[in-house]
Design goal:
Blueprint: H1 8-11, H2 15-29, H3 36-70
Helix pairs in contact: 2-3
Length: 71
Amino acid sequence: MKTKNIPTDIKSKSINDAKTEILEILGRLEKDNIDLSASKKDYQRLINLNDHIDGLFKERIKKIRFTLKKK
């Protein structure tokens, strides 16, 4: 699996914190008067946040499977 280059400030976020930031970014991207340069940065951050959340869910799935195997 390819390693994602996720910034440290994103890696330290909980799922709820990442979700909150995603919603803020989506709100900015949905506006009619947006700056293209800022939108590119927002979009990249959105991708990184999504990758981070995906990784957290995968870790939790592994823990659940491990716990179920122990029983």
